[in-house]
Amino acid sequence: MRNISAKKVWGQIKFDLIGKDSYRGVTLTYSWLANQFGHFSLAFVSTFILYHILLHYNSVTNPAFWAGISIAAAWFIFECFNFLGPLLLNKSEHATKNKSGSYTFQPDWKNISYDTITDIMFFTIGAFTMSVSLAFNNLFYALLAIIAVVIYPARDWYLTKMYQQAAVYPFQFRLSQWNNTISDAQKKIIIDFTNTTETGKHLLIFGANKAGKTSLSVAIGNERSIKHHSCSYTTAMKLISLFYEANININTPENLDLWAWRNASLLIIDDVNPGVALSKALIHPSSFFSFLNNDSFGKDNLSTMKKNNIIWVLGSGNCDDDIKETWIHMLTDIGIDINNISCIYL
Fold first, then answer.
1. Considering the entire predicted model, what is its pTM?
2. Rounded mean pLDDT of the chain?
């Protein structure tokens, strides 16, 4: 795990709040801030509307108070349904489940619950803020308490988004969304690699075209990013060019410059070879090793390969034992323990 300094967090906040996203794009941290402001605003506005409706009923003695309570309760029910409905009532879209109707990898229920609770708190803050602004009432003290409590998850989620966007994944994807069917043995390899606390682990992913190799590697990396591990995604061609450069970041935007690829606890190397059957590999282990062990930065490159966890998306539509063994042999030549190398074929 790698800590992100308060200076970097403050710099990201300034980047998100100052400037126009129409010319520089939208970051994950900005999207998270906008999402929570949307939760706040939905409850804030709906409380105002309900308050004016309740004013027409003389039987309601404290319309501002009851409007705040009612709207907070309504959004609480909505979020519970949003959480329990799709995930527990077997109504998820096919994209998250395999053909048998079950998850290939179980969702991280704890993380999803944490996200739901955070959303509920922002809804409640919006409802109570409008209620208190309309007429001061006892919800003011509850509002202060919720604001005090929400500081921790807000900081935690903002940091999580920084870890995710610093990895520069080509898309956002979680392990529970990967719906291909694999054997229990390979599934255990993936789970063990995702949850490992050890370093120097290598996972080789072979498979034909459209077998889900890239999405699986991104999903594994994203799960580790969510747990605040420093991860980096790159393609083999891009990485080969970085073998000849100093310890710079894969990313170009200054606000994402949190760690260089050599400092990432997990490195994902995608598109080493295509998933279609070829008579000759585009990148052979011997040529890859020659690029890796160059005269300029070979020592640093070899050290990175030995100490970091790495996912190799190796493709190969005609995968056989010979191809697998050549890559394993290259890794052992680097100095990686054979027991730290795992292979799966999709």
1. 0.90
2. 89
